[in-house]
């Protein structure tokens, strides 16, 4: 009994699966193309396209368009739904029709009217009609005849018949995206038009579409007037209160400048300035800080070891978020301090170049500290050629080198004896030297006259390009004539063989090999298998027999499953039939 139950459930499940698979998406909650006429017995240009709101709510169809796609793929716009009043919107009521009709049909006697007209363009042999919304998204589509290679196309109507969309048993239009199943060739239903309606914009002066005056407004012709007093008449919209950072004069609002002594309009007080005085002058809260020590030439690698030390001489902590510092001989690069960096009162704060990605030149440079708005706070004297591991520090009101490096602490003079350095007075170079502008160091003056140069040794000559002595023997060897069967390579100036490999001189390839024309080498010959028959093209028909084949397959599968489950019973039955036949003989 259990096996019988399992077999029945399996058969039922298979049937339900194939039935439900075919029913998925049978109904669409959208606007659908309901009828299409490609022409009638009177004229092939008597065309119309009818659409139906398959939903339970009114749909905004403003700027919706019909598009025709020919069998060749060319696209052309047929007609669009546009409001008669600028700024208005067009709506299609629930379960109502929109009718677009050709100009030729309108001019017939008696005329056939519609909501929108278009120039006749539909082909009787094949094509597509696409319904697009206001942004160009496809809402619905129908194809017929020989419209490209797509299957499941609707049948071409003839005479006075039209393509008509089928309805489900619930009274709504069917939509499975299978044009052959969704449409049938039938007589046209009575044409209905005039059901669309327009809703004007109640407030043309407000952003967006308003079907009625919003709360706080009242109609004023085509515009809406605020019931609240507008404080700023020169600003779009209604300003019930004065906006922050603005001042009003004669009902016009402008930005108020909190600090007249700062360039630009400061609508709000900068964070590091105190309130302005009676003259509108703001006083900076930037407290003076000092760069007190640098390590531009660390022992070993400079990366992660160079540092800049800042000293706070004030009686209160200083937030460094309002400060920046510049480095380089001409302060070319600027850097900000890390978020939350604070120098405590009367304390030192050191910053290595692993927390701020700065670089101090080993040759010459200086550091400048200023506020974010450009107020100069402090700058160092310029250092030149510091020794490795020697700090550039401010000690006893003088910038000097020291071998006692004290990051984050008070600076100490050098243990080897400190010498105050006046950066502006460099030691004079010797008479046969000059100062390099790149390194600020003294360099030997070399005369360009060959008369002052030391003569070359025997077997050498002076090169005109480099002004250096070169061996004559190496040049002679490089220019010796090549052998008769050789030539000089212009790229390497060396002799090379003039023998050129020809196909005739090449060794024949082994059996089963061929010569590669790209490399002139032998390679294994690859032969492609050859079939004794030509490939056939398989044509797939576009009918709906697959439904019955699916059900038949499921039934066969279920029958096979039943035979397997009941195999012992069938064997017993066959034995009984055999014994019964034996008795009657």
Give the SSE layout.
Blueprint: H1 2-23, E1 31-37, E2 48-53, E3 59-60, E4 65-69, E5 75-80, E6 89-92, E7 97-102, H2 103-106, E8 116-118, E9 126-132, E10 138-145, E11 162-165, H3 179-182, E12 183-186, E13 197-199, E14 217-220, E15 223-226, E16 246-249, E17 252-255, E18 290-295, E19 307-311, E20 318-319, E21 323-327, E22 333-336, E23 342-343, E24 348-352, E25 364-365, E26 367-371, E27 376-379, E28 383-384, E29 391-395, E30 398-402, E31 433-435, E32 442-444, E33 460-462, E34 469-471, H4 472-478, E35 486-488, E36 495-497, E37 513-515, E38 522-524, H5 546-565, H6 567-584
Parallel strand pairs: 7-8
Antiparallel strand pairs: 1-2, 1-11, 2-7, 3-6, 4-5, 4-9, 6-13, 9-10, 11-12, 14-15, 16-17, 18-19, 18-29, 19-24, 20-23, 21-22, 21-26, 25-28, 26-27, 29-30, 31-32, 33-34, 35-36, 37-38
Helix pairs in contact: 1-5
Question: Key features?
Answer:
single chain, 585 residues, alpha+beta, Immunoglobulin-like, 38 strands, 13% helix
